[in-house]
Design a protein that fits this description.
This protein is an alpha/beta fold and 328 residues long. It has eleven helices and 14 strands.
């Protein structure tokens, strides 16, 4: 196992395959989008397969594919087939906004993907357009239905934003009455690639209090090891509710995750920039043994939590990044 300097075993890799997205969500990027990376700066699928294979030999058991929106990258599904065949990988999943996903659900089932994180911040058509700056709510809901029909479990990720989608919290909770989905409400984070500052008027406590007022019988569920969410259940409902203290960073102490951006940068924490570029190392001719050494040395510098990482980031005077460039 890869172990950091705080004794935490790292067995979960989040791999971004692109920075591009077909939405322009206000909490992720400016309305005009980003300066998309040239293709030559992205990792190739061959490089990603080599990196993933290496991490699996080092103890990684779960890989989540992210973006941007991963399905905007051409030939993603053949890559997923190849990735799923690597021995030692126990779980392969992805995060998607659902707009392009419906056409590939049967492939996901054949590949062995058993769970998908679906980004959905509102059930209202007009608010969907206001938040994402695009049309497409119906396609997302159709994707949700197809995933459930194919027995692929769904975690709905909802970023809670003051003055934008508060009215959607209760309707999204009610989805769990008849659907076996987990709806997870996420504190807004400062990764929109612009100047908007997070005030956190709606932190995890405020979100929970808001839900409890409507559903006082809501019960706490045991949280799985390494869980980023505090999980709950309303008696008689099929699904679950989660609250993720993403900005408060209450789950950092048990962190078992690392990220690789679409350009190959290894980030040991969401709130730090990364110092090792695996794509560049591969193109420089590094052997697997040399890559293992560099990875091990980098993970040993993993911050204790997101606050420590952010303090370092502030001393470097870095500009605010977009979640799409980090890897969602």
């Amino acid at each position: 196992m890869i172990t950091d300097n705080h004794g935490r075993e790292i067995n979960y890799l989040r791999l971004a395959v692109t920075d591009r997205c077909n939405l322009r969500c206000s909490y992720c990027m400016p309305a005009e989008g980003l300066d998309w990376l040239p293709r030559r700066e992205l990792m190739t699928y061959e490089e990603m397969l080599r990196i993933c294979s290496l991490f699996i030999t080092m103890g990684v058991e779960k890989i989540r594919i992210t973006g941007g929106e991963p399905l905007v990258r051409r030939d993603l599904v053949p890559f997923l087939y190849k990735l799923s065949e690597i021995g030692g990988l126990r779980e392969l999943t992805l995060t998607t906004n659902g707009l392009l996903t419906g056409d590939f659900v049967s492939d996901f089932k054949e590949i062995g993907i058993k769970s998908v994180n679906l980004s959905l911040d509102t059930l209202d058509k007009d608010r969907f357009f206001q938040i994402t700056r695009r049309e497409g709510l119906n396609k997302v809901l159709e994707t949700m239905d197809k995933l459930l029909e194919n027995d692929i479990s769904i975690k709905i990720n909802t970023v809670v934003m003051a003055n934008k989608n508060i009215a959607d919290i209760i309707p999204l909770v009610r989805l769990t009455q008849h659907l076996p989905v987990s709806v997870r409400f996420i504190e807004e984070m400062p990764f929109n690639g612009g100047t908007h500052q997070v005030t956190l008027d709606w932190d995890h406590r405020h979100i929970l209090d808001h839900i409890r007022k409507q559903f006082p019988a809501m019960e706490k569920l045991p949280d799985a090891p390494y869980s980023t969410s505090y999980n709950y259940h309303i008696p008689g409902y099929k699904g679950k509710i989660g609250v993720i203290a993403a900005y408060s960073r209450l789950f950092c102490g048990s962190c078992n995750r690392i990220r690789i951006t679409s350009t190959g940068v290894l980030r040991t924490c969401l709130y730090e920039t990364g110092s090792l570029n695996l794509k560049d190392a591969i193109r420089e001719g590094c052997t697997d043994a040399e890559l293992r050494k560099r990875i091990t040395e980098t993970v040993l510098k993993k911050p204790a939590d997101g606050w420590e990482a952010q303090d370092t980031l502030m001393t470097q005077h870095r500009e605010q990044e977009s979640m799409a460039t980090i890897g969602g």
